[in-house]
Task: inverse folding
């Protein structure tokens, strides 16, 4: 069992703000400033289009915006640091200047994180859990920014069939060959705990306190369909360990596979296929909100915000106002 901050009192501190376990779920809208992201590559690649998209997501109910300048989908290619900075910094700066949204930068490179923090980013969303770039924790620590710490099965199970289609995410030498062999025998829950322990070691060495970390179980990264769903099912383990939870499930392949197995159209070149993928993703947001997941990362705002309202209201039913409804009026 992991060492907890304070059992049942999980909180996440960043830039003078706090997300507390038990709060309504926050919807985090994705703005990919990339030409090749798996579902919306090129749509927001120009700076002004990205800024406009961020404002649209905010109007749809997103309280947080996650800005990324490099696709991490299967088959994607590495983006040079200067190019990634060029993509994300103007967007972050504009969102912070023109809105009240929380802004995170989706990067595993410390130089990009530093530039984004200087531009006003509140959070660094690191899909390698501080392990891909050994300087990452040291860059975040002296700032007031928080960090999303995600487990990355691609790093710890590089030979797994589900991992081989992904690009490399650094982390050279972080784990020994013996550790990698041991990880290959672990189930996804054991793997999550082992990975977080290593991330905590890096954070502690850099002086990055654990109350500035929010944990992400790494849904969709080199995992099987069963493993993905089981990690969602057990996301509340993160709360039991004394941390808040960040969940990114929107449009992931295991969702599309579920729809396909049920006979639904998943051809995203059609309006129906594209829409059904977001409907299914929103269903998971409703479940996550009911479970008390603090932040859910999504591609569209309205559907997920509505789903979170329902999930939050079920979870927090005892606190809701009693409203007596009258009869329907005849038309």
Result:
């Amino acid at each position: 069992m992991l060492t907890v901050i304070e059992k049942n009192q999980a909180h996440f501190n960043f830039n003078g703000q706090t997300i507390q376990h038990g709060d309504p779920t926050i919807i985090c809208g994705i703005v990919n400033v990339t030409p090749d992201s798996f579902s919306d590559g090129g749509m927001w690649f120009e700076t002004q289009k990205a800024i406009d998209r961020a404002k649209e997501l905010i109007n749809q109910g997103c309280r947080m915006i996650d800005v990324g300048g490099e696709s991490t989908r299967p088959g994607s290619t590495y983006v040079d640091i200067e190019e990634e900075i060029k993509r994300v910094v103007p967007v972050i700066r504009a969102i912070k200047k023109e809105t009240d949204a929380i802004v995170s930068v989706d990067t595993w490179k410390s130089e990009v994180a530093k530039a984004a923090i200087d531009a006003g980013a509140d959070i660094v969303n690191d899909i390698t859990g501080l392990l891909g770039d050994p300087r990452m924790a040291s860059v975040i620590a002296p700032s007031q920014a928080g960090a999303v710490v995600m487990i990355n099965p691609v790093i710890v199970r590089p030979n797994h069939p589900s991992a081989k289609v992904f690009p490399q995410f650094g982390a050279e030498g972080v784990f020994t060959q013996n550790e990698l062999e041991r990880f290959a025998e672990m189930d996804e829950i054991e793997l999550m705990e082992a990975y977080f322990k290593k991330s905590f070691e890096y954070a502690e060495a850099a002086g990055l306190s654990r109350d500035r970390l929010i944990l992400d179980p790494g849904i969709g990264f080199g995992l099987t369909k069963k493993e993905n769903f089981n990690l969602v099912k057990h996301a509340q383990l993160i709360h039991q360990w004394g941390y808040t939870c960040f969940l990114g499930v929107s449009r992931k392949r295991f969702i599309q596979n579920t729809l396909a197995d049920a006979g639904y159209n998943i051809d995203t070149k059609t309006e129906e296929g594209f829409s059904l993928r977001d409907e299914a993703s929103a269903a998971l947001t409703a479940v996550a909100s009911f479970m008390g997941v603090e932040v859910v990362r999504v591609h569209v705002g309205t559907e997920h915000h509505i789903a979170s309202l329902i999930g939050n209201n079920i979870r927090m039913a005892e606190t809701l106002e009693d409203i007596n409804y009258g009869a329907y009026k005849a038309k």
